[in-house]
Amino acid sequence: MGITYLLSSIIISSMPPEVIKRNREVVIAEGIGPARMLTLNRPKHLNVISGKVALMLAQELDKYEIDDNAEFVTIKGAGRIFSAGGDLQRKHNFEGVCLEDVYSIYWLCYHIHTYKKPHIALVHGLSAGGGLSLMVPMKFSVVTEKVFCSTPEANLGYHLDCDLSYILSHLPGRLGEYLGLIGAKLKGKEVVAAGLATHFVPSHKEFELEKSLLSINNADQEDTIRSLIDKFSTNVQIDETSVLSKLSIIDDCFSRETVEEILDSIEAEAGKKGNDWIMPVLKSIKKASPIGLKITLRSIREGRTQTLSECLRKEFRITKNTLQTIISDDLYEGIRAAIIDKDKSPKWNPSTLDKVHDEQLDLIFKPFDEHDLELQIPTKEEEYYRWGGKYENSGYCLRTK
């Protein structure tokens, strides 16, 4: 350990100051010609999206959006993964300042969805939870065979945050309910087939694609980008072993009105011959937080008829109320069991689905009595404003410039 530390110190001390600074940045921002590149730079921490990361991403995007020399933006993750989503450790050690982080992350989600210039997510490895919020809304999102995506929030006693109730509710059939309640993983081509990415590019072509993107110099950027990515991409075909080949069963089970009815339907399917694939589904939903499951299902169902802004404002309320344990501390218990003590044995409260009542859910979803506590983003499509001067003026912003 001592020798390793000494060698590391020698290597670091011999690095140019600009390299050391670059390695310490949580987001690396670069520009080559008309391209602007953002790299999530916390590989040892799974490129989680902290408040600082969200703030830097939003500020850079805001700057590029009004820069006539910046014609498109790419985002990727350093190391072997794209992003594991939100900073669970930070949520577990909840303080008032955490609401500032949450607020800035939601603002970032709105900003990405409504961005004026072409943006491209180059995704490899894990993209979970909030990581999907960075890749799915992009004009172009490219995945490889090494990508796997999931939304494990209900398994942690949480809910679909950061626009995920909007994203999942717009997937084909009842796939959104399935992914949200089960936290199942989709891999590579499945991610494209499900509608969570636009292109599949084999990993051995990934570097050449990125290199080619940086050589673009054409006024009609969006069509040029699409044509270029198309040249590197491969058609997606799903084999019969994929869960996406079971959509008729998924649609039947997950269209039921309540979580209890969905569970009963899954159990009935599990008893049929040839349905071995559904046993892990059954196991997962039985292990998840009862209140997390019910909040997730209601949020997706509401998302089907809500605008993006309505979904984000709703999710922000749920997040704030969950962090403040309005009706349950399942989120903290879920994080404890998963990443703190790692005993994988959470003690949920309420412990069973029948003990979660509609009145409790109403408290979580209810708009705040004070309008200033709401997420201050446009509520109508014709309204439009950007990051600058809005986030900083909110009551949640505690930073000083």
From TrEMBL:
Q: Which UniProt keywords apply?
A: Hydrolase
Q: Where is the Enoyl-CoA hydratase/isomerase domain?
A: 36-365
The protein's matches in Pfam families, at most eight in alphabetical order, are given as: ECH_2
- Describe which pathway this protein belongs to, using the record's wording: Amino-acid degradation; L-valine degradation
The organism sits in which domain of life?
Eukaryota
Its Enzyme Commission number(s) read 3.1.2.4
Keyword Hydrolase in record: yes
Q: Which reaction does it catalyse?
A: 3-hydroxy-2-methylpropanoyl-CoA + H2O = 3-hydroxy-2-methylpropanoate + CoA + H(+)
Hydrolase: is it a keyword of this entry?
Answer: yes
The record describes the protein's role as: Hydrolyzes 3-hydroxyisobutyryl-CoA (HIBYL-CoA), a saline catabolite. Has high activity toward isobutyryl-CoA. Could be an isobutyryl-CoA dehydrogenase that functions in valine catabolism.
Recorded family membership: Belongs to the enoyl-CoA hydratase/isomerase family.
Protein name stated in the entry: 3-hydroxyisobutyryl-CoA hydrolase
Q: Which organism is this protein's natural source?
A: Solanum pennellii (Tomato)
Q: Which gene encodes it?
A: LOC107025428
